[in-house]
Amino acid sequence: MCDDFTAIEDEQALAARGLSRREFAAIGAAGLIASAVSAQSAAKELSLVVDHAMIKTPDGVCDAMLFRPERGKYPAVIMWPDVAGMRPAYEGMALLLASSGYAVLLVNHYYRVAKAPLLATMLEWRTPEGQEKLKPAIASLSAQGTARDTEAFVNWLDRHKAVSTKRKIGTQGYCQTGAFAIRAAAARPDRIGVAASFHGGGLVTQAPDSPHKLFGKSKASFLIAIARNDDARSPADKDALRAAAAAARRRAVIDVYNADHGWCTSDAPSFDNGEANRARAHLLELYKKL
Asked: Which of 159, 136, 157, 146 is nearest to 186 (CA)?
């Protein structure tokens, strides 16, 4: 999870790269400008379309973006960003996935408090100002709210012209929202066929509705990609997840990756391109069966 331990490890990761936090932030700011331009160019070159959406839910209106091929119908994916929220880094990740033939809905899971972006980069989450900004947004989240949101997102996708309702829907979450992907699969077992958690937190708890206890309420296959430093702190979690999946008779690929918490997120200090690509390859193998 994104806690004090991962903050220390992020500092160590930057030091290993010979960068200070300020230098990394400066690089990130420049990168955001470049990525915004390159994302628009890439979308055109790949014949992709980006639709801005306002999706009504029982709790309000969620701002979101749909990344999709220009023509045809495709299986849909709900992408939940990490604790720092919907921002350019995840727009790039959604665009990359859409280029593989998916209609990717990137959502602002903090919509109850504010429109995205709340933060511009992951590094802002490590600042007092960033954490203060996100406190009310994090407090607005709940398991019940995630289930209601999933219902609204699935219904919206099934009405969209670019979505094939003959195919199942995928869902994926990162860090804080790894649990959201599992909850989404349990909320709409009729439509969600694959759920993936990347360096997700809070997957195994003592709560009656702990995510690992929800496998049996779904009809999905699962990819649980665990960071090595998360595994080092909670080594029993992977065993509990495997046991829960087996008991529920759900297909689940549960692996510890050779990278630290946040490795899939392109603006995180711990980003590891090689392991991110490996995780993406595993995900696409599952998504072929949607």
From this structure: 146
